[in-house]
Amino acid sequence: MSTIISNPVETPVSGEKAYQVTGRKRLLLVSYHFPPVGGAGVQRPVKFVKYLRRFGWDVSVLMAANPSVPVFDNSLLVDIPEETHLEKARTWEPGYALKKNMGNQNKTGHASNSLLAPAKSVCRKLAKTGAGLLLQPDAQILWYPNALKAGKRLLKNLHHDAILATAPPYSNLILASKLKQKFHLPLIADFRDEWDLSSKYLENHQQDSISNLIQTRLQRSVMRHSDAIVATTQASTQRLLDRAHQFGTDAIGRCIYNGFDRDDFEFLDEPGHQAQKHGNQKRFRIVYTGTLWNLTTVEPLVKAIEALHHENPKILSGLELQFIGRKTPEQQALLERITRTKSTLITEDYCSHHEALKKMAAADALCLLLSDVEGADRVAPAKLFEYLAINREILSITPEGETAGILKDFWPAGNFRANDTAGIVNWLKARLQGNPATEIENSEKINPFNREYQAGQLAELLNQLVSNHV
What we know:
Blueprint: H1 15-22, E1 25-30, H2 40-52, E2 57-64, E3 85-89, H3 96-108, H4 117-134, H5 144-157, E4 162-167, H6 171-183, E5 187-191, H7 195-201, H8 209-225, E6 228-231, H9 234-246, E7 252-255, E8 284-289, H10 299-311, E9 319-324, H11 329-338, E10 344-348, H12 353-361, E11 365-369, H13 383-390, E12 393-397, H14 402-408, E13 415-416, H15 421-432, H16 451-469
Parallel strand pairs: 1-2, 1-4, 2-3, 4-5, 5-6, 6-7, 8-9, 8-11, 9-10, 11-12, 12-13
Helix pairs in contact: 2-16, 5-6, 6-8, 10-11, 10-15
Protein name: Glycosyltransferase subfamily 4-like N-terminal domain-containing protein
Organism: Gimesia alba
C-alpha cells in the first residue's frame, strides 16, 4: 500500500475554524493505556499520535486517568505533540498492587493450619470465578462507564472525523463501538493481538464455556460496527477479516505492522555499530527485552545452554545473558536452571524504553522468542522491529510463520525452531568461539517498518473511510 506524503501544517487557527481553513481532520483514539503508562503495547498508539499530524490528522486521546497497570515510563511523554487533546476518565478498578496480590494468593494458595483455611481457599476461587464472569471482556470494563461519558462529552464539544480503538484491552473496542453507534463516525478496530489468541493464552483469563460465549458475542458486536479491521501481521489481518465476515460485516482489512521510530535511536553514539562494553568485559552478551510468559517461553534456549554445558561447560563462562522485563513464575523457574551452568545470568524486571534501547545497543546479539503453539505463526512480536533497526544479530527461536519469514530476509542464520536444540547449540558455540555473524541482509527492506511510514498507511485508510462516509 502506498503512503500519503505531506508536510506538517502549522496554523494559528484553532477549533472548528481550523478544519474549515486547513482541511485538517481529527481522530479520536481510544486507548486505556497511554503515557505515562509504560510497556510495549503503548508504543503503537503513541507513535500514531506522534506522526499522524504530518499527514493532516490531529488526535484526541480518550485514556484512563488512574490506570491499574504494572509499569509507568515518563520517557514516552516526549513523543506526544503539545496540541494533542487528552481526555481522561477514571476507572473503578483496584490498584495494580492489590490485583497482583489477589492473583498471587489464588496461585499459591498459602498453606495454613487454620481449620478455616480450606473454606477461605474455596471462597477466593469462587470470588475470582465470579469476578471473571462479570468483568467481560476484561477488567478494564470497569473503565467503560466513566469513559463513555467522557467520550460522549468530547465528541459533542469538538468535531471529530473518525474513531480508532486499539486492543487489548478489548474494552477499548466495546467503548469505541458504542461511540460509533451514537455519533455515526467511521470506526477502525486496531488489534495489536487477536482477540481469540488473547483469550486462549493470557494469564488469569477466564476459561469456561460461558466466558467464551460472552467473548464471542462481544467480538461479533464490535466487528459488525467496525468499518475497518487493522492488525499487526498479514496472517492475523486475514484471520480477523475472515472472522468479521463470518459475523456478517463488510469491513475492510489492513495490515499495519508494529515498527521502530528512528528518533528513538538518535541518542546512541554510533547507530548500527557495536557499542562498547564496560571495562574489560569479554563475554558474548545476549539480551532479551520484554515479557517472558507462555507465548514467549525461554525453555528452548535453556535446553540448548544445558546441552552445551554437558558437552563443554568451560565455554559457557564466556556467555552473558540479560533478560529485561516481567517474567511469570514458570519462566523464572526456567531461568534459574541457567544459574547451574557457568553462564552469567542478569535479570531486571523493567526499565524505561530509553534504557532498554541502550541495553540492546550494548548487546552482541538480541534474543527473540515465540512459543510453538497454535496461532503463534500469525504473531510478530513488537520488539522484532526495534531489534532490526538497532542492527544487532538476532538469535530467534520461533515457529514457522510470519516472524520467521521476516527474519529470513535479515538474519536467516540465527532463526531456529524450538525443537532444534542442536542448531541452537552450534550457533552458541560458533559465537563463543569468536566466529562473528555476517552483516544484516537486505537492510533496505527495513524501511516499511518505520513508524512514520506506518502512520501514513493509517492516514491513507482514515482518508478512505472518511471519503466513503460522506
